[in-house]
Amino acid sequence: MKTPFVTKAQLDAITARYPTPFHIYDEAGIRENARRLKAAFAWNPGFREYFAVKATPTPAILKLLHEEGCGCDCSSLTELMLARRCGVTGEEIMFSSNNTSDDEFRLARELGAIINLDDLTLVDALAGAVDHIPEKICCRFNPGGVFTLAQTREGFQVMDNPGDAKYGMTRAQIAQAFTRLAAMGVREFGIHAFLASNTLSNEYYPALARILFRLAVELRDETGVQISFINLSGGVGVPYRPEQPENNIAAIGQGVREAYEEILTPAGMGDVALYTELGRFMLAPYGHLITRAVRKKHIYKEYIGVDACACDLMRPAMYGAYHHITVSGKEDAPCDHKYDVVGSLCENNDKFAVDRMLPKIDMGDLLVIHDTGAHGHSMGYNYNGKLRSAELLLHQDGSVELIRRAETPDDYFATLVW
Ligand SMILES: *Cc1c(COP(=O)(O)O)cnc(C)c1O
Description:
It contains twelve helices and 19 strands. A hairpin with an 8-residue loop joins strand 15 (337-342) and strand 16 (351-358). With 418 residues, it is of the alpha/beta class. Helix 4 (77-85) runs parallel beside helix 5. The protein has two domains: 8-23 and 286-413, Beta Barrel (Lyase, Ornithine Decarboxylase, Chain A, domain 1), CATH 2.40.37; 27-284, Alpha-Beta Barrel (TIM Barrel), CATH 3.20.20. The strands form three sheets. Strands 1, 12, 13, 14, 15, 16, 17, 18 and 19 form a nine-stranded mixed sheet that branches. Strands 2-3-4-5-6-9-10-11 form an eight-stranded parallel barrel, surrounded by five helices. A two-stranded antiparallel sheet has the order 7-8. Pyridoxal-5'-phosphate binds at residues 52, 54-55, 73, 96, 194, 197-198, 233-235, 277-281, 374.
């Protein structure tokens, strides 16, 4: 059962001030979750979460997470600029990009960010782009092949395909990169890998940690460099479907601790800091897309037309992703109607739900689309002349703040050349 963090009475008051559609975020939920993550890794003194900015690149969110001790994981020039304007600088920024441009390297360097190199060729590219190579650097590892986790008790199996992913360096390349960088004056090294996305298993991070911890010991022994941090990156998932189990971040932290004490501590590497770059886990459940039912249509199926579209939330159209829907105020009504809930794009994949059993929907009803806090508004676009929606923040005291206004036609026309 997924319950919205806003009631119908709250939404009626909010929509009187801010027209639908909009994304709304839950400050209390975001803070509590960030604290749970921090507590789960409190055993590691150097631990830091670098929030994946691409998930929700909104200043109020980045600042709120910064207050909870999170840095920013940036992957582009504008994300770096955004972090700077939010007061996040220096080693509070992780720059994990790929196919990186010289401009991006220069700004990352100017800000004092930790640069995560995606490829061996970027060693020379970075050296050519900046005046001084940083003393601390990270390299991204790709083990190739297929990454699998044994079937867990919950019955969910993780499988992803690093061998088919464009990211990271091979085992041989990362050793070569470390040796070259050490010769250029780098003194502290980190290792990063992202092997599976949206995992629903407490075993993903511990399994990834084992791979990276063993690699760290080997690379130290082979190259003689000092490895000061390991970046477990993103990939801890959230249950989009109501029947899926939640990850237990305390158990995940404990699993990583066991791997750490088994591999790093005995190797004399008990001072290695752990970093994460979670996006989805930090924000997805704490965002809703609120949209109103505005049209209905009956042909071969029953359609409900809402005032949001795939431009506000691309995941269903792009990946066929499931997002739970609650009809606000009808939480306890029987789900005895089958609908396709659709936007107005001239694309037949513009459907938030297909053949979904929901309570009877009346025109004017407010629909809560769940788990849109990450990779929701941020993946928005302007196809069909659609304007991107506003973002609101529900504060802990119940007040609501506009943290990004909706686009207007002037925004749409602003870049046109006549
Ligand atoms: C997208 C991304 C993340 C965040 O991934 P989530 O699945 O949102 O946790 C972290 N690091 C890198 C390099 C990414 O590209």
